[in-house]
Write a structure and sequence with these properties.
With 246 residues, this protein is of the alpha/beta class. The chain is built from 5 helices and 14 strands. The strands form 2 sheets. It has a 7-stranded mixed sheet with strand order 6-5-4-3-2-1-14. It is globular and about 50 Å long.
């Protein structure tokens, strides 16, 4: 699928944290810009939703932030579809080393597998990607994506020991995990509350903030209130199938 360079968007394919909720798949996003279509994180349920927006032939590359199933499990469905049904081969995948341990052995016959780590930079069409390791076990990579003078930053999963500041200034839209509310904050947590996400984005000078990866049991209105208060202006709660211009 050819997308004009001036069109740089992110579509939420799923925004539930840790496990799918009744109305949302897990983490997955469709990034379109720079003449390419990239599937960013492939959490459970996202492949079905992806096909409501593009065909499997339209996916130019896949980026997986880390090996937890709620961020990568649907890559197996994509492998099966490409290998046995839609007959695609050589689709580039950029992932942490840990993801490979969870795949069936023949995945490299179909996928062009590329391991990325902290500080790596990748170009996919007209998109420029830069990765930063977050505060989350196992190795987890946030990513900044630039195209046409605009920038999208995705936190992936992280605790408060990481910040969008690691991805540089001038972030136009930040997609940030906000797993729970402020009452769950505490030492050793490897996720963010909505309040922490808002604080981090404000301190990093983020222009717009979209909160995602929210546990299905969390009240979204309360998450939005806590995030907006900390951010200093209104945040947006990610909604499945919604498209966000960068």
């Amino acid at each position: 699928m050819v997308v004009e360079l001036s069109s740089f968007t992110m579509t939420a394919l799923g925004c539930s944290g840790s496990y799918p909720g009744p109305d949302s798949a897990c983490s997955g996003y469709l990034v379109r810009g720079g003449g390419v279509t990239v599937w960013l994180d492939a959490g459970s349920g996202t492949m079905a939703n992806l096909q409501r927006h593009v065909s499997l032939h339209d996916v130019d590359a896949v980026v997986l932030s880390h090996e937890h199933p709620d961020h990568c499990s649907d890559i197996e469905g994509f492998r099966v579809a490409c290998g046995y049904v839609v007959e695609r081969a050589g689709v580039p995948v950029y992932a942490t080393a840990g993801v490979e341990r969870h795949l069936f052995p023949d995945f490299k016959k179909v996928l062009d597998w590329n391991v990325v780590t902290d500080g790596d930079e990748v170009e996919i069409g007209g998109l420029r990607l830069r990765f930063s390791r977050t505060d989350h076990p196992p190795e987890t990579l946030a990513v900044r994506i630039d195209a046409g003078g605009r920038s999208l930053a995705y936190s992936a999963d992280t605790g408060p020991g990481w910040s969008f500041e690691a991805l540089g200034a001038g972030i136009d839209l930040a997609l940030c995990e906000a797993s729970y509310l402020a009452d769950r904050e505490g030492p050793g947590r490897s996720h963010l509350s909505a309040r922490q996400a808002g604080t981090m984005a404000r301190e990093a000078g983020v222009e717009r903030l979209v909160l995602t990866h929210v546990w299905p049991v969390v009240d979204l209105n309360q998450a939005m209130e806590e995030g907006s208060s900390a951010y200093g202006r209104a945040v947006t709660m990610a909604q499945t199938h919604a498209e966000y211009p960068i």
